[in-house]
Amino acid sequence: MRALLTLLTSLLLLTPLSAEERKGSRLDATVWGGLVYATTGESDKNASPVDKDLAAQLGKVKAFEDFTSFTLLGEHNQDIIFSDFTNWVVPSNNFNLQFETKGIDEKGGLNLMLKLWQEERVLVKTDATLRQKSPLFIGGPKWREGRLIFVVVLK
Amino acid sequence: MNQERKEQLVTLWIDDQLSDAERAEWDAAVASDPSMLEEAKAAKNTMSMLKSEIPATQEPPYADFFNSQIQKRIREENSANLQNNPGTAATFSLDGILNWLRSPLTLASAAAVAIALFVNGFGPGDADAPVLASNHTVVETVFTPDSAINVTSKFDEYADAHVILLDGIDAIPEDVEIRGKSVASWAPATKFGPARFFDADGKLAYVLHPTPTGLPHFLPFVRDI
Fold first, then answer.
1. How far is it, in rounded angstroms, from Cα A98 to Cα B160?
2. Confidence of residue B83 (pLDDT cuts 50, 70, 90)
3. Residues of A in contact with B213 (CB under 8 A)
4. What is the C-alpha to C-alpha distance for residues A150 and B176, in angstroms, rounded to an integer?
């Protein structure tokens, strides 16, 4: 009996979702979220460097100008986004982003209501309109020799 | 005379802005309802007291959030004006907002602080900025429920990015390992199961099962993979 329950649970977890089970309409948009470690010390050898253009943008921010290295601890390229639905961007299970959207505006911006979580603690809530090539940087807590930065980009 | 008109006259009387016609209207109203004058005097006294007791400028809690809410209201009003009067320049109803700020009820609570913030922290340049930045990411409101966190929010033109800084969060201990994965797709939660996140090879990376109160909870057996 226990084996049967385990099997059924596994099947439910792995069964693809039907369209009817999803709420909201799917949007033609991709949101990229990254958890970046900015440091003045040695970069994290187990992590990959962030994209060159993104590193250049991060380096231009006054609050981050002292950091000499930006490495990517985790990322999530989210191309399945539903309007009127709770979406998640999860580059890490320590830091993740919950958002709802009402859709794309006439200029291609994605209107979002964001909530940034650290574990089970809400750090910040925002209403924002994301636009391509114009990231949102959220400077988070200090860690080791540097600081964690959550990056959100509309691709 | 309806209540709205009474409040308008009281506000104008407090500001000594009654026209001749309004003065006549005011005198007639006060003659028929003497309590109106008493209320107006009380509101004026409250305002004088607030002005003398409260500093001319004061940093309120969540100033960014307050400012952004006013800006958002102005933009919404602009948008409505443009829809109703296509082709006209975008303007906002300063009178409407000032009337709201000056209404006796608002005065009785926190008008002095609000007006100080409006005058000192919200100039015409600020009002224009989000509208002009239509090709850039715009953050309209920022709020943290955690009083230990100090939030600043600003568009950085040089980086072409909006930057929110969260200061005051306890540093993460050095021995805590912060690691992420490369997630490429997800399947939202349904009544049959939690949300699942997959890497580029289709392997399960995370399973997210929010608690009944909405807190994100990752299933531990996946966390440890």
1. 24
2. low
3. none
4. 18
